[in-house]
Protein backbone atom coordinates (compact mmCIF):
# COMPACT_ATOMS: atom_id res chain seq x y z
CA UNK A 1 0.00 0.00 0.00
CA UNK A 2 1.36 3.44 -0.97
CA UNK A 3 1.43 5.91 1.91
CA UNK A 4 0.92 9.56 1.15
CA UNK A 5 3.19 12.20 2.60
CA UNK A 6 1.56 14.36 5.27
CA UNK A 7 0.34 17.71 3.99
CA UNK A 8 2.28 20.80 4.93
CA UNK A 9 1.11 24.40 4.57
CA UNK A 10 3.14 27.03 2.77
CA UNK A 11 2.69 30.32 0.92
CA UNK A 12 2.38 29.97 -2.86
CA UNK A 13 3.87 32.32 -5.45
CA UNK A 14 2.35 31.88 -8.93
CA UNK A 15 4.77 32.94 -11.69
CA UNK A 16 4.63 32.93 -15.51
CA UNK A 17 7.57 30.51 -15.61
CA UNK A 18 8.46 27.13 -14.09
CA UNK A 19 11.04 26.59 -11.35
CA UNK A 20 12.76 23.19 -11.48
CA UNK A 21 14.49 21.35 -8.64
CA UNK A 22 18.01 22.72 -8.44
CA UNK A 23 17.05 25.75 -10.52
CA UNK A 24 17.77 29.37 -9.67
CA UNK A 25 15.10 32.03 -9.30
CA UNK A 26 15.61 35.80 -9.06
CA UNK A 27 12.68 37.98 -8.04
CA UNK A 28 12.07 41.64 -7.30
CA UNK A 29 9.51 41.98 -4.53
CA UNK A 30 7.28 45.02 -4.17
CA UNK A 31 3.76 43.88 -3.21
CA UNK A 32 3.08 43.84 0.56
CA UNK A 33 1.75 40.26 0.46
CA UNK A 34 5.02 39.00 -1.04
CA UNK A 35 7.13 41.10 1.33
CA UNK A 36 5.23 39.30 4.10
CA UNK A 37 6.03 35.99 2.39
CA UNK A 38 9.76 36.78 2.36
CA UNK A 39 9.66 37.86 6.01
CA UNK A 40 7.86 34.66 7.01
CA UNK A 41 10.26 32.41 5.11
CA UNK A 42 13.42 34.10 6.40
CA UNK A 43 12.14 34.25 9.99
CA UNK A 44 11.05 30.60 10.05
CA UNK A 45 13.73 29.20 7.74
CA UNK A 46 11.08 27.73 5.45
CA UNK A 47 10.47 27.81 1.72
CA UNK A 48 7.59 28.96 -0.44
CA UNK A 49 5.89 27.20 -3.31
CA UNK A 50 6.44 28.37 -6.88
CA UNK A 51 3.69 27.33 -9.28
CA UNK A 52 3.18 28.12 -12.94
CA UNK A 53 0.47 30.76 -13.29
CA UNK A 54 -2.36 29.27 -15.34
CA UNK A 55 -4.52 32.38 -15.32
CA UNK A 56 -4.14 35.92 -14.00
CA UNK A 57 -1.13 38.17 -13.37
CA UNK A 58 1.72 38.41 -10.87
CA UNK A 59 0.37 41.66 -9.46
CA UNK A 60 -3.18 42.39 -8.42
CA UNK A 61 -5.84 39.73 -7.89
CA UNK A 62 -4.62 36.24 -6.91
CA UNK A 63 -3.61 34.16 -9.94
CA UNK A 64 -4.65 30.55 -10.60
CA UNK A 65 -1.66 28.25 -9.92
CA UNK A 66 -0.80 24.89 -11.48
CA UNK A 67 -1.27 21.94 -9.13
CA UNK A 68 2.38 20.80 -9.35
CA UNK A 69 5.12 23.20 -8.30
CA UNK A 70 8.56 23.42 -6.70
CA UNK A 71 9.58 24.59 -3.24
CA UNK A 72 11.86 27.64 -3.42
CA UNK A 73 14.33 28.33 -0.62
CA UNK A 74 15.72 31.85 -0.32
CA UNK A 75 19.52 31.84 -0.55
CA UNK A 76 20.23 35.57 -0.78
CA UNK A 77 18.49 38.93 -0.77
CA UNK A 78 19.45 42.55 -1.38
CA UNK A 79 18.02 46.02 -1.95
CA UNK A 80 18.05 47.27 -5.55
CA UNK A 81 18.96 50.86 -6.39
CA UNK A 82 15.26 51.70 -6.67
CA UNK A 83 14.70 50.44 -3.14
CA UNK A 84 12.91 47.24 -4.14
CA UNK A 85 13.80 43.98 -2.43
CA UNK A 86 15.56 41.46 -4.64
CA UNK A 87 15.81 37.79 -3.68
CA UNK A 88 17.59 34.76 -5.05
CA UNK A 89 15.98 31.39 -4.37
CA UNK A 90 16.92 27.80 -5.24
CA UNK A 91 14.46 25.12 -6.33
CA UNK A 92 14.11 22.23 -3.91
CA UNK A 93 11.56 19.39 -4.00
CA UNK A 94 8.42 19.27 -6.10
CA UNK A 95 4.95 19.22 -4.56
CA UNK A 96 1.30 18.80 -5.40
CA UNK A 97 -1.25 21.30 -4.09
CA UNK A 98 -4.07 19.47 -2.31
CA UNK A 99 -5.98 22.58 -1.20
CA UNK A 100 -5.42 26.30 -1.43
CA UNK A 101 -6.99 29.43 0.00
CA UNK A 102 -6.52 33.16 -0.38
CA UNK A 103 -5.76 35.20 2.72
CA UNK A 104 -7.38 38.58 3.28
CA UNK A 105 -4.21 40.29 2.03
CA UNK A 106 -4.37 38.36 -1.24
CA UNK A 107 -1.53 35.93 -0.45
CA UNK A 108 -2.23 32.43 -1.68
CA UNK A 109 -1.54 29.60 0.76
CA UNK A 110 -1.64 25.92 -0.01
CA UNK A 111 -1.67 22.59 1.75
CA UNK A 112 0.80 20.58 -0.28
CA UNK A 113 2.10 17.04 -0.54
CA UNK A 114 5.87 17.14 -1.01
CA UNK A 115 7.26 14.69 -3.55
CA UNK A 116 10.47 12.80 -2.77
CA UNK A 117 13.51 13.81 -4.78
CA UNK A 118 14.11 11.73 -7.88
CA UNK A 119 16.72 9.01 -7.26
CA UNK A 120 20.03 9.49 -9.02
CA UNK A 121 20.16 7.59 -12.30
CA UNK A 122 23.14 7.58 -14.67
CA UNK A 123 22.53 9.12 -18.10
CA UNK A 124 22.31 6.23 -20.61
CA UNK A 125 24.70 6.38 -23.55
CA UNK A 126 21.86 7.03 -26.01
CA UNK A 127 21.37 10.43 -24.38
CA UNK A 128 25.03 11.51 -24.57
CA UNK A 129 24.09 14.19 -27.11
CA UNK A 130 21.91 15.85 -24.46
CA UNK A 131 24.89 16.11 -22.12
CA UNK A 132 26.91 17.85 -24.85
CA UNK A 133 24.07 20.24 -25.65
CA UNK A 134 23.65 21.08 -21.97
CA UNK A 135 27.37 21.90 -21.67
CA UNK A 136 27.07 24.35 -24.58
CA UNK A 137 23.89 25.93 -23.16
CA UNK A 138 25.49 26.36 -19.75
CA UNK A 139 28.51 28.02 -21.32
CA UNK A 140 26.41 30.63 -23.11
CA UNK A 141 23.24 30.99 -20.99
CA UNK A 142 23.86 29.83 -17.43
CA UNK A 143 27.34 30.81 -16.25
CA UNK A 144 26.40 29.98 -12.64
CA UNK A 145 26.47 26.30 -13.67
CA UNK A 146 29.96 26.42 -15.24
CA UNK A 147 31.54 25.19 -12.01
CA UNK A 148 29.09 22.29 -11.64
CA UNK A 149 31.06 19.11 -10.94
CA UNK A 150 31.30 16.70 -13.91
CA UNK A 151 29.32 14.14 -11.90
CA UNK A 152 26.22 16.34 -12.23
CA UNK A 153 26.27 15.76 -16.00
CA UNK A 154 25.99 12.03 -15.31
CA UNK A 155 22.75 12.43 -13.30
CA UNK A 156 19.72 11.97 -15.56
CA UNK A 157 17.45 14.04 -13.33
CA UNK A 158 19.83 17.01 -13.13
CA UNK A 159 20.53 16.98 -16.88
CA UNK A 160 16.81 16.80 -17.71
CA UNK A 161 15.81 19.61 -15.37
CA UNK A 162 18.64 21.88 -16.60
CA UNK A 163 17.75 21.26 -20.26
CA UNK A 164 14.06 21.88 -19.54
CA UNK A 165 14.88 25.31 -18.09
CA UNK A 166 17.45 26.33 -20.72
CA UNK A 167 15.90 25.08 -23.97
CA UNK A 168 13.30 27.45 -25.50
CA UNK A 169 10.28 25.46 -24.34
CA UNK A 170 6.99 27.20 -23.77
CA UNK A 171 5.55 27.32 -20.26
CA UNK A 172 3.16 24.40 -20.83
CA UNK A 173 6.02 22.21 -22.05
CA UNK A 174 8.15 23.19 -19.06
CA UNK A 175 5.28 22.32 -16.74
CA UNK A 176 4.93 18.93 -18.43
CA UNK A 177 8.65 18.26 -17.90
CA UNK A 178 8.29 19.23 -14.24
CA UNK A 179 5.40 16.84 -13.74
CA UNK A 180 7.07 13.79 -15.30
CA UNK A 181 8.08 11.27 -12.66
CA UNK A 182 10.68 9.36 -14.69
CA UNK A 183 13.99 11.13 -15.44
CA UNK A 184 14.69 8.86 -18.42
CA UNK A 185 11.29 9.61 -19.96
CA UNK A 186 12.08 13.31 -19.53
CA UNK A 187 15.37 12.88 -21.40
CA UNK A 188 13.65 10.89 -24.15
CA UNK A 189 11.03 13.58 -24.68
CA UNK A 190 13.64 16.32 -24.68
CA UNK A 191 15.67 14.39 -27.27
CA UNK A 192 12.59 13.98 -29.45
CA UNK A 193 11.85 17.71 -29.56
CA UNK A 194 15.45 18.79 -30.23
CA UNK A 195 14.98 18.86 -34.06
CA UNK A 196 12.56 21.75 -33.52
CA UNK A 197 15.42 23.95 -32.36
CA UNK A 198 17.91 23.06 -35.10
CA UNK A 199 18.59 25.64 -37.75
CA UNK A 200 17.54 24.58 -41.26
UniProtKB/TrEMBL annotation:
SUPFAM superfamilies: PUA domain-like. SMART domains: LON. Gene3D superfamilies: BPP1347 like domain (1.10.4060.10), LON domain-like (2.30.130.40). Pfam families: LON_substr_bdg. InterPro entries: Lon_prtase_N, Lon_prtase_N_sf, PUA-like_sf. PROSITE patterns: LON_N (PS51787). Residues 7-198 form the Lon N-terminal domain. This is LON peptidase substrate-binding domain-containing protein. It comes from Rhodanobacter umsongensis. The lineage of its organism: Bacteria, Pseudomonadati, Pseudomonadota, Gammaproteobacteria, Lysobacterales.
